[in-house]
Amino acid sequence: MRRPPRFLLARYSHHLVALLVVALVASSCGSSVVAVKVGNSTLDRDGVAALVAEMSGQPFDATIDAATTAGLVDRYVQYEALVDLLADYDVVATPEQRSTARDRLLAAGVGPGDLSLPRLIGWQAALDLVEAGGPGVRAAYEAHVGLLSYELCTSHILVSAEDDAHAVIHLLDNGGNFAALAVSVSQDPGSGQAGGSLGCVPLGAFVPTFERAVLGALAGGRSLVGPVPSQFGFHVIRIDEVRTVDPVPFEALGRRASGALLQVAGLSREVQVDARYGVWDRAVGRVAPPAGPLAPALARLVS
């Protein structure tokens, strides 16, 4: 569960986890209807169709599965939240900075004719601005650092499928014992045998999606959160204890600055997503595809 190396933003990799498909053609209601809103940034239905087409390489009127659609909308939400946060503090990329971001993306393998390149340039330029620091970036961090000033005392249950995570949550909501479920079904052998306990660790020890979900749960007054995706599978996380700590000074963030500002952006921006494109979970900080059938997942877990 440790943090993976950070690479340049390039192309979003598709993780197909649902069989449901959605047609991304604007409906007869018209394309002026707001489909996705992140702070002051919005997409209408045609805008979502264009986003998915350019990021997936599929035609504008193609039928795209629900999981891919939700994943691409989620990527839009994550990075537009950062752009929106920085704009609040007058941190906006200049043409020269956008040109530098373009060069970095081309060097990372994005083709010069790639339809997603203009959008990726904006996102990469935002990341570059954060890494460069500056008074506006510092101000954005210091205004929201209280959202990150925690030590994480958690337990988790790790499963391979998102529907299995929903089934775990269903069992817990109906009186299931967290520690017993962790021992019987968690695919993390170390914490599983300890009833799921991960102890107490400072921010930066776990992968960003895990930490963002815990911070989102704390902000929303929740003690249980999931499903939370990572490269290891899907987590159901229980917050065992809340410990506040002194905030990390901005100058001490170093390479963690981008991750910290992305977390702050996701926690502080207002996000709305039309249900046809996914489900926005404010606590997890994720646009998720619709949940699959619960009965087969329950059968797998209790068999």
Helix segment tally: 11
CATH architecture of the largest domain: Orthogonal Bundle
> Which spans have pLDDT < 50 for at least 5 consecutive residues?
2-30
Instruction: Assign the CATH class of the largest domain.
Output: Mainly Alpha
Do you know the CATH topology of the largest domain? Answer: Triger factor/SurA peptide-binding fold
Shape: globular
Largest sheet, strands/sense/barrel: 4 strands, antiparallel
Give the tally of β-strands. 11
Rg for CA atoms = 20 Å
Q: How are the strands ordered across the major sheet?
A: 6-5-8-7
Share of helical residues: 40-55%
Taking the alpha carbons of the first and last residues, their distance comes to 27 Å
Characterize the quaternary organization of these chains: single chain
Mean pLDDT: 86
Summarize the helix and strand pattern as letters.
EEEHEHHHHEHHHEHEEHEEEH
Q: Provide the domain count.
A: 2
The secondary structure category is: alpha+beta
Strand content: 15-25%
Briefly, what is this?
By secondary structure, the chain is of the alpha+beta class.
Describe the secondary-structure layout.
Blueprint: E1 21-23, E2 34-38, E3 41-44, H1 45-56, E4 63-65, H2 66-88, H3 95-107, H4 117-132, H5 135-144, E5 150-159, H6 162-173, H7 178-185, H8 189-192, E6 197-202, H9 208-219, E7 224-230, E8 233-244, H10 257-268, E9 271-273, E10 279-281, E11 286-288, H11 294-302
Antiparallel strand pairs: 1-4, 2-3, 2-9, 5-6, 5-8, 7-8, 10-11
